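In response to reviewer comment 3 from the previous cycle, which asked for concrete evidence that the modeling workflow produces usable outputs, we include below a single protein chain processed end to end. The sequence was submitted unchanged, and the resulting structure tokens are shown without manual editing.
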Amino acid sequence: MPRVVRVGARLMAGLATRGGWMLTILLAVAWLAGRGVSDRVVWSQWLRWIPTAALIGVLLLGLAAARAGPATRWRRRRTIVSVIALTVTLGHFALLEHRLLRRPPAAPDGMSLSVWHMGFRRTSDAMRTHTRTAARALFADITLLIDGHDIRGEIIDTRPDDTGSVIQGRFTLITRLPILEARTFIATDHFDVVQFRLDDGADGLVLLAVDLPSDPRLPRSELAGTLRRLLDETGVATPDIVAGDFNIPRGSHSIERVFPTLHHAYRDGGHGYAATYPRVYPLYHIDHLLLDAGWRATRYDIVDPGVGRHRAQRAWVVRAPPG
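The workflow returned the following structure tokens.
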């Protein structure tokens, strides 16, 4: 091989190695900024949407780039840094973000809830059949369905005999608990919020159904502030449970801004890989089930209904003991 070709090949290999290393550093910094700043400002909300799985893939690329080239002190340092970063990220992914090692209880206590954003309006006959079947499989003590406008009546027709139902705005509620109220509090281009009051045989239960916009260009922090103001102005009762499609990743600042006193059911009873969208290859946990401090989840599952664009949520909740 001519000397000029060998020199050129080494130069290209060096550039590729440095390029892979720099890409790794840039994405790692962006991911950390997204988690640190969250969606408080517009630029950071885009970084907040970087999946940890993508960071793991780039870290593997960075490790390969770090191992390339001659055995120098710089290569050894890059390799050590890459291994440490990859190990920490894998630990965060497996133990904190997704709890891959946690085993759920086989027979959870409490009242069962299912929440599913069906996510379409017009369907073929085959899709209608699949959707009805999927909805029946999700029926629980409280079942909340979002959208599916032209098939909601068909789904209600298949509900268990011991349940009642109501359609309010974009939401369909099927429940074994007596329905005391179904009231739309907010219905705008950006927000749909419906309050359901149910008789749970104790102090009553307030379920707030929420659907927020999917346009990623909308500033999430501003939307959260506007929604919080509208909730305060319209006199919505303090909810026991908030459920729906937030189009905001779990753990984001904007969710806490709207509902600062609530916690995610995944915190109590979550296990395994936790992402709801897109359904086939989910990367983002944007459908949520939030609980007041007076409630806790004994188990929280994410279920693939086999149809639609979102995965469904299923949980079992109980009243938390005083104190």
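DSSP finds nine helices and twelve strands in the chain. We consider this sufficient to address the reviewer's concern, and the full set will be provided in the supplementary archive.
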